[in-house]
Known about the structure:
Blueprint: E1 11-15, H1 23-33, E2 37-42, H2 45-59, E3 63-67, H3 73-85, E4 91-95, H4 111-139, E5 142-147, H5 150-154, H6 162-182, E6 187-194, H7 207-216, H8 225-235, E7 247-250
Parallel strand pairs: 1-2, 1-4, 2-3, 4-5, 5-6, 6-7
Amino acid sequence: MGFQTGVGQRTAVVTGCASDRGIGYATAKRFAQEGWAVAMLDLDAAGVTAKAAEIAEQFGVAAVGVGCNVADEASVATAANEVKAAGLPPLGAIANVAGVASPPDFLDLTLAEWNRVIAVNLTGSFLVCREFIPQLIEGGYGRIVNMSSVTAQHGGGVFSKTAYAAAKAGVIGLTRGLAREMAQYGITANCIAPGAVDTDIRVGSSEQNEQALSASVPLKRQAKREEIAALYVWLSSEDAGYITGTTQSINGGSYIS
């Protein structure tokens, strides 16, 4: 455990944490492994509360689970108040992980689907940042790490397509804007753009599609959840204090810019 050295114990807020095979849960665990307290947000209130209890027992850190719809303004505001009232160490990091996939082709894309994908992936990141950044400023230390996607870089293909690409490209713009505006407070903001990751986000994807995804990657495999989690936590460390406004590609070579 080395990422907390010199800053005292801090709390990381992580969204999308209730799934066993999710990046959010893996990220919360990695923060806890490195000595951070964790505030875990998810639409599944019972599930995220149980996951927080598991992490607290396994790593001996403070951990709370809070039910939250990241696409709903009132829900995020309530979650921020609950986290602040929970008696955790000062907030030090925001890790936006929650997201939804979108496989429809553009010509089959409904406005309802477009709005759903933008609401969770882009507006959700905005709302969480807006509500929790004041706690970063108050604590005097801040790292924001948002979830984009290789889909934003190459336009999509095998599974998620245009709506998802647009939402995740928006996250990159949001992050760059935050990096400029939050620099005055010493707060950094960066994006992670994973390629295919071994999670449940592509529910309904066929085995053939999954094999095609792996075959299309130069390293011939999908990323492990823990590999993405490690990058979230490193970007939240003191060592990453001069990195801001970037998009960190972690895709096994599937997109090389």
